[in-house]
Automatic annotation (TrEMBL), chain A:
This is Uncharacterized protein. SMART domains: RAB (SM00175), RAN (SM00176), RAS (SM00173), RHO (SM00174). PROSITE patterns: RAB (PS51419), RAS (PS51421), RHO (PS51420). One of its GO terms (cellular component) is late endosome. Keywords: GTP-binding, Lipoprotein, Nucleotide-binding, Prenylation. Pfam families: Ras. The lineage of its organism: Eukaryota, Fungi, Fungi incertae sedis, Chytridiomycota, Chytridiomycota incertae sedis. Belongs to the small GTPase superfamily. Rab family. It comes from Geranomyces variabilis. The keyword Transferase does not apply.
Automatic annotation (TrEMBL), chain B:
One of its GO terms (molecular function) is GTPase activator activity. GO terms for biological process: small GTPase-mediated signal transduction. Residues 193-388 form the Rho-GAP domain. Pfam families: CRAL_TRIO_2, RhoGAP. It comes from Geranomyces variabilis. GO terms for cellular component: cytoplasm. It comes from the Eukaryota. SMART domains: RhoGAP (SM00324). Gene3D superfamilies: CRAL-TRIO lipid binding domain, Rho GTPase activation protein. This is Rho-GAP domain-containing protein.
Amino acid sequence: MATRKKVLLKVIILGDSGVGKTSLMNQYVNKKFSTQYKATIGADFLTKEVMVDDRLVTMQIWDTAGQERFQSLGVAFYRGADCCVLVYDVNNVKSFETLDSWRDEFLLQASPRDPDNFPFVVLGNKVDMEESKRQVSQKRAMTWCQQKGGIPYFETSAKEAIDVEKSFQTVAKNALQQESDVELYSDFPDPIKIDGETGRQGGDAGCAC
Amino acid sequence: MFSAFSAAPKQKTSAELHDLVRDKLLREAGVDYESRPILVIYACYLPNPAEADYDLLLDMFFQRLNEFVLNDYVVVLFAAGNKYQPGWSWLYKAYSHLGREYRKNLKNLYVVHPSLWPRMIIQGMGAVVSPKFARKVQWVYTLADLGVSIPLNQLYIPDVIREVDAKNSGAKVPPGPPIDDSSTEQLPTVFGAPLQDIMGVHGEKGVPRVIRDCIEYIRKEGLAIEGIFRRSPASKQLQHAKRAYNRGDDNFALEQCGDVHLACSLLKSFFRDLPEPVLPAATYDVIRGIHSCADENEQVSFARNAVVPLLPPPTRRLLAAVFGLLHQVHLYSDQNLMTSSNLTIVWAPNLLRSDNPVADFNMGAMGPQGGGAGVIIKLCVERYPEVFPEGST
């Protein structure tokens, strides 16, 4: 088991501007929350190594700008994703109502092999805010997730670190499931293997000369 | 880079080039109303670079020019109708060959029918190398306008130029409400329509109603709202509003939708839907020049003198109107949290658009490693009154 091929899971976070995508990623990867109000430029990713069912996997988490222009950023970013995290703000009903179009957009762009069974996870963020501000009930969100084929649903707070770890654990697990369902690299040309053995993902394969 | 090459290059002899320069490319046209000799340059006669040695051409050009430049002179450049475009490096060479007396004695340069290409080159060089030079340049969009400064009957005007002029002048329609007659849904009338169709070639029709409505509404209700221009509206409402403006529906009242974020998205959407982005990839080279500015004040004058004049008049008016608003939004950033950086991040993708999103990201970045557009957009937000001294009128 220990000598199994190293797994890289690509996870995409989508959702309207200001729902907390960057904050969730930062809380999960760096255990930090910044109160600075800052829009995200384009797309960026962080990686984190996690244990899933006794397997060490590397999660590459793509944080995207919620700006409209990037909704059609498309193919290059979405392709090869193993799981898509849809985030909305429980205090903002519009951000919930756009989940449909984010999901459709993702399926269209990523065109996964089996769209009906592609793993999504929905996060209702900012549950730390006072109850009176809440605009989307848990029930409403869960009903939507059921209608879409039983998408796992979590209520989170990136600020207070509520259920962030737990939800991303599910993300990792479902992504890994997806990754082993799809025959490895079947969609892509083989990666160039520098030393014949490890075939690592780009970047850090240093020069051996 | 040259824009065209022929398959079977047959080099012109230097005698042929000499004749070309004397008879076609460069002509004398008497004196202007202040008795200064007029030189006319015809870009439409530029030879195919595969058939002509452009370095040799440049020499001939200067030989001919030498006869005039000892005293004051004016130049009329017919920029349109050219099949071949000399590249940046050649033009730069040409410019650097110009001795001091050429530049000093040149009193006016009238660029007639400028498309984006000559505007970029001339403005870019002028402002980078010499702001004084930039002030001598006048952009002329019709022959009628040229006639105000230059006695037209002295000029030889090739047919190709007359054709371009007929097209340009024909597009000139009397000012009126931007959206009235066309109620068809097929052709975009507002969102997705070319800016010069909406605002007129010279921007004479003013900023379109949707922009005015949005700006007014946001000024009134939105300045203090957190995440203004960042948050999204309901997408159905957005589609509804866009259709209403495209129909020219006078009964549609933006304020009744009761959502400032809707107005913000409409604004951004208008820019994204333009068939030509306001900062097209062709401007990137000039924009990158901002990094050679020593300090922020220099950057401001670069933006004002080198970048803004590159843009066609309707674009300038539109940007002046929108940056006026963004400047105000930024002044309220302690309440709305939208600092100039945040505004730049959310606006850059709407202003920059080439077919390469990665290049666009890079252009929009604000740091020294970025392409420069981010820096310029941020300056326009922070120091709007200096970058757009005349405002939007």
